[in-house]
Amino acid sequence: MVGAWLVLGAAGAAVPAVRRALHARAALPRGCGGCGLRAAGASAGEALLVGSFAALFVFWAWYWSVGHARMEATARCCNAALCCNDPHPRTGWAARVLGHLTTLTLSFTTFPVARHSVWEAVFGVPFTRAVRYHRALGALTWALVTAHAVLWWGKWAAEGTLANNVTTLNNLQIMPFDASNDASEPGLHGDNFTVPIAELGWVLLTAAVAAALFCRARRFELFKYAHYGALFFCLAAIVHAWSHWYYAAAGLLLFGFDKAARTLRAAAPPVEALELTAVPGAGVTRVVLPARALRGGAGGAHFAGQHAYLHLPALGALEWHPFTISSAPARAAGAGGVIEFTVRDLGPGTWSGRLAALARDAGAGGAPKGDEGAAAAAAASLFSVDGPYGGAGRYHEARAALLVAGGAGFTPVHAILEDLLLRATGAADAGAADDGAPLGCALLRVDVVWVFRAAALPGAFADTLRAVAALPATHPRLAGVFRLHLYCTDPGGAGGGGAAAEAAAGLPPPRAGRPELAALFAEAAAFAGAGRAEVFACGPRGLTRAADALALAHGCGFTCEGWGADTPRAAAAPAARFIARAAAAAGLAAAAALAVGLGLRGH
After folding, report:
1. If we measure between CA atoms, which residue out of 231, 243, 149, 159 comes closest to residue 196?
2. CA distances to 44, 113, 388 from 119, in Å
3. How many distinct structural domains can be found in the chain?
4. How many CB atoms lie within 10 A of CB 3?
């Protein structure tokens, strides 16, 4: 099946028509939105991936229940009391089936988390959503292996060997007995030593799941490094299950190569920030780095809308955090090229809050430092960069692009907007502009919808916004191609005042309140024609879900960038749902174990 995915992926990458077919979206049945995998719809490629895995899971369950010769014989044995000298054959059979199902789900768990992958480009599944499949597969794996272990422990308890088997390493007593043995004597298996290894792996996997539930928002590094316990579980599973290695090999190798490439990039010498500024009143920090920081010091092009991981040793030796590159790729070209990040300040105690404090201490605008303490100040602004990753969809293949942002979610939108603006004005200045293709691609119109609370926030992107507002005067051919729709939900709030007024000089004044997204989506879809409008959204979950639903309703392509909850409070509801689903899965597994146990009473 993985081979078929690779062939289809190659076809999608090479043939635009195949890729468009894989990216085409359809609505999910009512009630599926609660799964959190997609707010309003799923791409054809995504449905194909999920459907093929579900079909394989059903086949796997049948095959290891009765299709395999050994398991089929064991199933027939379950119908004969004390068959094969085993007093509880049903329990052993059910435990083995669950173990094989664990092998399947675990083998696919690592596929969605490789950052160098084709899931988004080919199948229309961006990394941020693929991670949710990783979580779902991880929860399912934990539920299956827990039920597998519980059934074995119950069997041992019924046979009086549980106390021995949980306290010994080299003389586990596991039935059925060999036919040559007396039923009163304990039987031994040659792979007994793998059982305690697998049990230790289960403990570490449980710790990793617990960290994902309770630590991801508040203690991200604890959550991250607890996952290495899950890797130990993968290795323990390979030792414990003789057939597991060749199912898990593809996913583990992909993850291993991906991790090795990222480690090599991260090992490159750090670079000193050219600018580290806390933008007054906007609640964001601007970080400007030499472009050579990308790709482990090798430099090179990135695409508008991509993100990278930042590491600042002064703020934490082990902390890496993802942020969108908010500058256009053209600004990274040449020996003096730069990349820019605009980081939202999430408050005291957070990495971004400490970064903002460091920027304020360094002086507004990255003012020159005195001789005293210059070396220490320089060391405090040394960054390592891992990236770029991701993408912003195929907006350049559409006739109309609708870029929707909320608050600091404007960073990827700014990168796309600045990229298109530089391309269009550069062509116009060089006399190479084409009235039929003003942006040098299929795009004919770009609508930018930005909703923000702090009135000073546009000041962080003032140069680009002023250039767009001035296009009718500076480049008449581009009049009406770029359209700004700015909305401020709190014009008189803490972000207003003098800083806001200064930042807003030369900008179109924002409207108060929120935009009528439905009207904007309908207008863009009507202008572009069927299937020729592309939507990119980044911001609060409510805004991106509304954009997702409207894009689906109007037949627009849709790409969303998001990193989950921004704060522990925002993470509470998804975590509660995750806990409820994991508990439900574990409850079903426990119910199955109880049903088998009750069945044993009849023997």
Report:
1. 149
2. 12, 10, 16
3. 3
4. 8
14-66 residue pLDDT tens:
666 776 677 676 665 544 544 444 445 667 777 888 888 888 898 988 888 87
The answer to the question of residue 351 being in a domain is: yes
Same domain as 293, residue 245? no
Domain edge (last residue) among 365, 389, 413: 389
Residues 278 and 207 both lie in one domain? no
Q: 154 and 209 in one domain?
A: yes
241 in the same domain as 182: yes
Domain that holds residue 512: 395-561
- Which residue, 357, 389, 421, sits at the end of a domain? 389
Residue in the structure block whose two tokens are 């064991």: 74
Question: What distance in Å separates the CA atoms of residue 557 and residue 559, rounded to the nearest whole number?
Answer: 7
Average pLDDT taken over every residue of the chain? 75
Question: Residues 141, 213: one domain?
Answer: yes
Do residues 438 and 481 lie in contact, with contact meaning Cβ atoms separated by under 8 Å?
A: yes
* CA neighbor of 311 nearest in space, from 267, 377, 247, 374: 267
Residue 510 vs residue 565, higher pLDDT: 510
Highest mean predicted confidence (pLDDT) among 50-64, 415-429, 561-575, 577-591 = 50-64
Q: Please give the Cα distance from 590 to 423 (Å, whole number).
A: 60
Which has the closest alpha carbon to 235: 266, 200, 209? 200
Q: Is 493 helix (H, G, I), strand (E, B) or coil?
A: coil
464 and 430, same structural domain?
Answer: yes
Shared domain for 185 and 295, answered yes or no, is no
Q: Give the tens place of pLDDT for each residue, 295-330.
A: 654 445 788 888 888 988 888 877 888 898 999 888
Angstrom distance (rounded) from CA 127 to CA 106: 19
CA nearest to 459, candidates 423, 502, 408, 429 = 502
pTM value is 0.74
3-class state of residue 319 by DSSP: coil
